[in-house]
Amino acid sequence: MQHIDCRGLACPQPVIRCREAVGSGADDLAVQVDNAAARENVLRYLGNNGFSCACEEKGGIFHIRATRGAATADAPVADDPGSGARTLVLITTPTLGRGDDALGHRLMETFLGTLPEMRNLWRVVLLNGGVRLSATPGPALDALKKLAENGVSILVCGTCLAHYGLADAKEVGETSNMLDIVTSLDLAEKVIRP
Fold this sequence. Notes:
This protein is α/β, with parallel strands linked by helices. It is 34% helix and 25% strand. It folds into 2 domains: 2-68, 2-Layer Sandwich (Translation Initiation Factor IF3); 87-192, DsrEFH-like (Hypothetical Protein Ychn, Chain: A), CATH 3.40.1260.10. It has helices spanning 13-23, 36-48, 101-114, 139-149, 158-163, 178-187, and strands at 2-5, 28-33, 51-58, 61-68, 87-91, 121-126, 153-157, 174-176, 190-192. Helix 1 packs parallel to helix 2 and helix 3 packs parallel to helix 4 (139-149).
């Protein structure tokens, strides 16, 4: 069994260390992380790469045991963007445009509510102030939930959630890391940044 101590490491280092271990042929891992975002990211990465995972928290430390095999409920299976065009929408603020914030909030709500009309919408990524949209009740959050229900993948930056104190308030999307976000940008055939 390979032990990987990721306590104190900032995102995306825990996932990168796991990727290195998987790349070197490790079939049995014991990973330690000290925050919920790292736990989710490591579980998702390992599950997406054919590992069966179990996680236990002891004294604020998450102990993840992963064995190469079928994915489990703790480790979601990777979404398959399919062979069609993949459009990614990158949102970095809770408002659309600059100027009047009240108008910007209304415009963002309308923008998100209209996204289902877009063909080939694959993923929405929320970064920096954009993560507030995943945690603030109202029309924008409702629109994001509808997108998720319709199969659109929503990635929410875990570092950003922690920065704004919203990790426990997030109501939609997967807590993610910069490695997942950069990979998504690379896989997308079109990126829209409103």
